[in-house]
Design a protein that fits this description.
The complex is a heterodimer of chains A (315) and B (274). Chain A starts with 17 loop residues before the first helix and ends in a 7-residue tail after the last helix. Chain A has 315 residues and is mostly helical. Chain A is built from 12 helices and 2 strands. In chain A, helix 2 (64-70) crosses helix 12 (283-308), helix 3 (73-107) crosses helix 11 and helix 11 packs antiparallel against helix 12. In chain A, 67% of the residues lie in helices and 1% in strands. Chain B has 274 residues and is mainly alpha-helical. Classes of the chains: A mainly alpha (315), B mainly alpha (274).
Chain lengths: 315, 274
């Protein structure tokens, strides 16, 4: 503190040092546990070693881990599963969250907060508790979902919609993915609804008043005013769903007992990466898998961006 | 009645029924927590509360160190909330109110990692913890958790928009020391944002599954989500006991949500809206 000005007591910190002092606890942890692992993971993707022999047996294998991954049948399978799940749980979230937010925005006053709370609640509860709960609800013979479906199929006029009850949700390969998608949908619908509610609040009321004066009906107002105004938020929400959906891990992991279920039908790429590392003890290949998945995430995020950008000339 | 009038009523009904459907799994989690395994797998399954809760709790504490896991979950959640609030408020204050070399690139780096998928760091994180000898140590969960990029972002936004620079300047003129300014002026003004960040951090830590899955290897160190999952088996899962455990794990969240849902929802979607 030799440089402190004379009127400042010696024990007082110089303002130049203060910001570094304030940032350093966060920064040190951030560099060690946030930045370093990313770089190290990239390094590991090009290495191979025998875990029992320790890190000293590590050797550079070039693109070997990547070559292994892209010729690996399970990698492609997991990627297909992930894409299926991201799509099947993601698209309905937005298709339903938008009108849902619109109805809540326009028709709910006094009970508004409780209704939003009910839809949002699954988002803040533990995935494990949720997945365990759905494990019982999905039970083939005694699960409430099958019982409800059975009851619905007895209703005249609805029977043709529902076939094959009782459905063996978690043990048959073709049913595992829909079961996981239902849980994911249930968990994130409220989050998306809140996003759209926030966006709806920014649309000026006088646009609707003017439209009503011009004789536009509510449905027309929804399609010609509301939807176009929501576009930036749809872009944002879909991006979040794409990024989150491709990283899906916890829900399928717990619902399938950690192994992906019958025929690995519920094994996502993030799960396969975890298993490659901690079950098959191949950290190098697992790191390569994680970077391949990262490329897929980046690519799809870019495509989403392209899809939502207004084309030249039009609009 | 014409369609224009019917539509909002139908919508009202649909949204209401939907809200009830969203809550149904929670209801049955609590109902099943009070029934034995055989009662749950009955036709029809129980639709209302039974009296087997204590029996389920007994099974639970026999199969897994349930209270211990609950204690670890609470300990880790409190420690990570405390550290996150301290470090992120300090860092956020520096980013919002000071000019220093490397500030812009550093902030961009912090924001950039928020966009990167978390699974990229999974394997190196395990290896670091292993090298530090932190496997099976709660600190392996709450120390990395304190480096929250989201926390820094949130604190910087809040300080930048709600604490006037003049106030800090005035305090400095009056001879208040730098740490005194942080402790006596900035921190009290940060209270609302600290409340929100604290809630979010606590809940995220309480629910964290992947973190403990990677670093907690022995059952007596399991946090609650891991312990509950260890009850799962291909045959003979004690569903009543599992539901009792899940219900106990969910209850604190329901209470927190009930008293602070507005603040939580706003906080969790804040990054999106601003």
């Amino acid at each position: 503190m030799a440089s402190t000005s004379p009127q400042r007591p010696v024990w007082r910190l110089s303002p130049k040092v203060v910001p570094y002092l304030l940032v350093s606890p966060f920064l040190i942890l951030f560099l060690v546990f946030g930045v370093f692992p990313l770089g190290f993971s990239f390094f590991l993707a090009f290495q191979s070693w025998e875990p029992t022999a320790g890190l000293s047996s590590m050797k550079f294998v070039g693109l070997g881990n990547f070559a292994f991954a892209i010729t690996d049948e399970w990698f492609w399978k997991s990627l297909k599963n992930t894409a299926w799940l991201a799509f099947a749980s993601g698209v309905p979230q937005h298709v339903i969250a938008i009108p849902l937010a619109y109805f809540i925005h326009t028709s709910f006053k006094r009970t508004r907060n409780s209704v939003i709370g009910a839809y949002f609640l699954p988002y803040i509860t533990s995935t494990v508790a949720i997945a365990m709960m759905f494990g019982t609800l999905f039970s083939t013979d005694f699960g409430l979902i099958n019982i409800a479906l059975h009851a619905l199929s007895e209703v005249p006029g609805l029977g043709w919609l529902i076939s094959g009850v009782p459905i063996d949700w978690l043990n048959r390969a073709e049913n595992v993915k829909p079961a996981v998608a239902i849980v994911v949908f249930w968990r994130y619908i409220g989050f998306n609804t809140v996003l759209y509610l926030a966006a709806l609040q920014t649309i000026p009321k006088d646009i609707y008043e003017a439209a009503t004066m011009d004789g536009a009906r509510r449905l027309q107002q929804f399609f010609y005013i509301t939807l176009p105004s929501l576009k930036p938020m749809i872009y944002f929400g879909v991006t979040l769903s794409v990024v989150g959906g491709l990283q899906l891990f916890e829900e399928p992991f717990i619902l399938t007992g950690g192994r992906g279920g019958t025929d690995q039908a519920g094994m996502t790429t993030a799960m396969y990466m975890y298993r490659t590392a901690f079950e098959f003890n191949d950290f190098g290949a697992a790191s390569a898998l994680s970077w391949l998945l990262f490329v897929v995430v980046a690519l799809l995020t870019w495509l989403t961006n392209r899809a939502f950008k207004p084309r030249d000339g039009s609009q | 009645m014409n369609l224009e009038k019917m539509a909002p009523r139908a919508a009202y009904l649909l949204v209401g029924v939907g809200a009830l459907l969203m809550l149904t799994p929670f209801y049955f989690m609590f109902v099943f927590a009070t029934h034995s395994r055989t009662e749950i797998f009955n036709l029809p399954p129980p639709l209302f509360f039974g009296d087997s809760f204590l029996v389920n709790l007994h099974i639970l504490t026999e199969k897994i160190p349930f209270w211990r896991s609950l204690g670890w979950s609470l300990y880790v959640a409190l420690a990570s909330t405390g550290l996150t609030l301290l470090f992120c408020s300090m860092g956020g204050y520096a980013f919002a109110m000071f000019e220093f070399r490397g500030k812009q690139p550093l902030f961009l780096l912090v924001m950039g990692t928020m966009l990167l998928p978390s699974f990229l760091g999974m394997i190196p994180t395990f290896m670091i913890m292993d090298a530090f000898g932190w496997i099976d140590q709660p600190r392996a969960l709450y120390i990395p958790g304190a480096a929250s990029a989201f926390g820094i972002f949130m604190m910087r936004q809040f300080i930048g928009s709600s604490i006037p620079k003049d106030l800090i300047e005035a305090a400095r003129m009056d001879g208040c020391g730098e740490l005194g300014i942080y402790w006596r002026i900035v921190l009290p003004l940060l209270a609302p944002a600290m409340g929100t960040l604290g809630l979010i951090t606590f809940i995220a830590s309480w629910n964290n599954f992947i973190g403990p899955l990677i670093v907690m290897r022995s059952p007596e160190m399991y946090t609650l989500p891991l312990a509950l999952r260890s009850m799962q088996s291909p045959v003979n899962t004690e569903w009543g006991a599992v539901m009792a455990g899940s219900a106990i794990a969910t209850l604190p969240l329901l209470v927190l949500f009930a008293i602070s849902s507005r603040r939580l929802i706003d906080g969790l979607t804040a990054g999106a809206v601003k």
